[in-house]
Amino acid sequence: MSDQGNNLDDPDAEVSIETVDNASLGRYFNNTTHTIFDELVSSEKPDAFATVKNPVFEIPTTSPSGFFDNETESLNEPSLANDLQRDVWIASESTTKILRTIATSTNGTNSINRELLTMPGLAMQDDMIDPTKGAVLHILGEDEFSSRNVLTASDVTQDERGLRNLIQAGCYRAAINLTGRLLAVYGQGFGKINLPSKHTPHSLQLWFTRLSLLTKLRQIEILETESRPFGNLDKPDMYFIYYPELYGTRPGSMASFSFRLLLAEIPTYLGKSKQAIDNLYQILAIIKKIVKNLAAGLSGDGSQIKNETNKQEDVLRLWNGRKCRTLISIINCAMGMKNYILASEILENLYSSMEWKKAEGETLTSAIGRVHLILGDVSAAEKQFLITRDTPPSSKNIRELVDRGLMAVAQNAFQEALNCFQSASALDPSNVMLRNNIAVCLLYTGKLEAAVLLMENAMTRNPIKCLQESIILNLCTLYELHTTHSKQSKLHLLRQINKFKGDSFDIGCLQLGT
After folding, report:
1. pLDDT digits (tens, 9 = 90+) for 435-458
2. What is the DSSP string of 394-439?
3. What is the DSSP secondary structure assignment for residue 45, as one 8-state letter?
4. What does residue 386 show for φ and ψ, rounded to 5 degrees?
5. Largest distance between two CA atoms of the chain
6. Rounded Cα gap, residues 407 and 377, in angstroms
7. This model's pTM is above 0.85
8. What is the Cα 358 distance to its own chain's centre?
């Protein structure tokens, strides 16, 4: 279901199938065409953890939307025809009229009202700073401060390669700073909001990267200001045909589909989940039109095409994948609103509407079952999991073991849950999420010291993987429960963070109180 934890003791706990907060940035950086931004970050999802004070059990299954992250793979080497099909979007009637006028006019003879243009710009003039540096200097002193070595925007090449390096190093603030420099080249830097400028697929991908990072860091005020000029990406200058001198009569949208989804979801982070759901349903309606056109042997926009049957099938598969991604985004928003009934209904319809591979189908049914657990309906969850407590678990199926563990947690059977999570961990010893679940069960079975030792050992063996904000928060809470002298242990964690983590880490999870 999600890499975000679910508080199964609390039927009102908030959970999502996939959230920007805990999901890989690759979800947003991935584009549907091969671009210079491909593979900016690893597709591996980081594990997420929640506080021990409110025990949260992590979910190892991949989000269904992950099935469609690599949409280009099914299309092999992209030809112009495939590029056109991937870039298809059905513009609004008013935008279509403007684009039609441009397409039938002599180049340079059209004057568009500036209110109909997309005019973005940066909302902050100064670079974002590394908050860990200041904390280390204040708490640990100059010696420790001088040993911190993280990349800044000036330490890398001033291009996409440098941006990729910063993101892979976890230096998201520096990456945001670099996007600002690169966007300034397009006349879209600080103070340029509401001033006309030209757009390209490259500039839009820079904006997509920047807004994704701002979302990841929860820089909500900046995110709202900088995303507002893009609207729903339907203004005329978001389409290739608006620039005949560069693209001739090429149809389609210059913005990636993932950018479209991101903008639709942003209201969620502003406390406006219903607006986000409305945005996503608008996207879904257009996708259904495109799929209908493709199924009829037409181009996605409804025009006649001459294309090989196998390529048409590939494009249809691509757009069906986008339809599923959009539905998953709607589920995320529904979960954020604690509308678990809607989320469950969409998941069930999604499962029954397509033929799924075995692993994908199991992921979806498991996700449905876990929503039922949040609602407190253990019997319904059992039916989805296709398991009962009376039957012995498979010794080699991690998902089944975790599902059984979660059912046990829902019934406050923590020893049984502990056994399940330990068995799953034996099959996947490097899975930090499972160790977190084990630690919570140890705590609730009265073995606090064992829980602390387990998490500390995991931290020692793999500090890079384990130094995540949520797991650090868990461990610090365990320290506070374990001893009144927890500060020294927390300072050791701060030293580890200073050594291994980039500029995006939130040291507030250490609960140092200074």
Report:
1. 999 999 999 999 999 999 999 999
2. PTT-HHHHHHHHHHHHHTT-HHHHHHHHHHHHHH-TT-HHHHHHHH
3. P
4. 60, 35
5. 79
6. 10
7. no
8. 24
